[in-house]
TrEMBL record:
It comes from the Eukaryota. It comes from Panicum miliaceum (Proso millet). Residues 79-113 are annotated as: Disordered. Residues 80-92 have a biased composition (Polar residues). This is Pathogen-related protein-like. InterPro entries: Pathogen-related_defense.
Amino acid sequence: MAAAAEVGGDKYRSFIHCESERDTVWRNGAPPNYDVVNKLFEAERTQVWPEGSLEEKVQWLLKTWEMELVHKVRPEDQKTVNSAKYTASTNGEMPGRSPPPELLVPSMDEGPD
């Protein structure tokens, strides 16, 4: 996992500065810079996982997944999920669908007596 830092990448995330990311569409026009966040993480964390451990792999996966979800515009640029099968919802609603009207407009019957 730490090998990414040796080639100019992020120490805790992959798929930011790789050659395979040359055609990636980034939300802000360029890959994010996590230098400040990584320094704070290193100063504040309470556990340093052994290199190659399951815990380190999960930490790497979650940090990489979050970076891709937030900063990569096109789902096909994401490497941590299969964009053809991945779906997300909020409160049971799929993206692009409007919430039921009863969630948007309060009922007149619900006010104080």
